[in-house]
């Protein structure tokens, strides 16, 4: 529409402009999706490793406080771990290898040295090591 001064009066977007914005947004999303997905899987792997570490610390603390033995069991085929009677699960797309299926904490808080390695489908590896005499855990991630 032409106004009295002779300038056109555009109060909206044309269909072509809207389509161009849609194409640009789609391209940005398509480029960033693999990066975001890779980052999310790495975060999931590291979170799983930390949750296992918390369970080991919990079992050690209870062994010390209650002055009795506590066992953390790992069931690799079922993707589970936990204290007797309670199971926690890690995602099915994460493989695990453990140094021992059962980790026993004695009343003085000590245990055998322990190691678990978790690997996601992208090949990232998170390794948790427990020093049995001190209860110190270390987590290392290889990307």
Descriptive notes:
The chain contains one helix and eight strands. It is of the alpha+beta class and 143 residues long. A hairpin with a 4-residue loop joins β1 (70-75) and β2 (80-83). It is elongated, with a radius of gyration of 27 Å. It starts with 14 loop residues before the first helix and ends with a strand.
Annotate the secondary structure layout.
Layout: H1 15-66, E1 70-75, E2 80-83, E3 88-89, E4 95-98, E5 102-105, E6 114-119, E7 125-131, E8 136-142
Antiparallel strand pairs: 1-2, 1-5, 2-3, 4-6, 6-7, 7-8
Please summarize the sheet with the most strands. 4 strands, antiparallel
What fraction, in percent, of the residue positions are helical?
25-40%
Number of strands: 8
Q: Describe the strand arrangement of the main beta sheet, using strand numbers.
A: 3-2-1-5
Number of helices: 1
Q: Write the element-wise H/E pattern from the N-terminal end onward.
A: HEEEEEEEE
In CATH, the topology is named minor pseudopilin epsh fold
Low-confidence stretches: none
The CATH superfamily label reads: minor pseudopilin epsh domain
CATH architecture title: 3-Layer(bab) Sandwich
Beta-strand content bin: 25-35%
> Can you give the mean pLDDT?
90
């Amino acid at each position: 529409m032409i106004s009295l001064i002779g300038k056109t009066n555009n109060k909206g977007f044309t269909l072509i402009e809207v389509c161009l914005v849609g194409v640009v947004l789609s391209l940005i999303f398509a480029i960033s999706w693999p990066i975001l997905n890779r980052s999310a899987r790495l975060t999931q792997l590291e979170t799983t490793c930390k949750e296992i570490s918390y369970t080991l610390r919990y079992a050690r603390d209870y062994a010390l406080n209650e002055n009795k033995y506590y066992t953390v069991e790992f069931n690799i085929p079922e993707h589970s771990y936990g204290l007797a009677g309670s199971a926690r699960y890690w995602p099915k797309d994460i493989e695990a290898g453990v140094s021992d299926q059962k980790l026993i904490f004695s009343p003085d808080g000590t245990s055998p040295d322990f190691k678990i390695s978790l690997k996601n489908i992208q090949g990232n590896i998170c390794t948790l090591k427990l020093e049995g005499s001190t209860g110190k855990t270390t987590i290392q991630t290889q990307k």
